[in-house]
Amino acid sequence: MKENLKSLLLALLVVCSLIQSYFMIYRLPGSDPVVKTENDYIRTEDMGEELQVEGMLYPSQIALHLGDNRHTVFYPESTFYNLIYSRLKGRQFDGFQRYAVENVDWKDIRSRIGVELDFGRGIPVALLQKVMQIASDPLFEGESISRLLIYNTENEDQVRVFFFSSQGDVVYEATKADLTIQDVRQQVDFGKDWIPYTLENGYYIPEKPIDMIETGMTIGLYTTEQMQRSLFFDASITRYIREKDGSEIYTDSKRSLQVKQDRNWINYTDPAAPATGENNPGKNALSAVDFVNQHGGWNGQYRLERTEGVDTERHTVVFKQYYGLGQYGAFPIIDLSTFHYGEITLEMRQGTITGYERSLIYPKGEAFKKRVVQLEGGDKLREQIAGLKQESRIVQLYPAYVPSLTKEGLLLKPMWVAELENGAARVLQ
Question: If we measure between CA atoms, which residue out of 330, 413, 408, 405 comes closest to residue 360?
Answer without folding.
Answer: 405
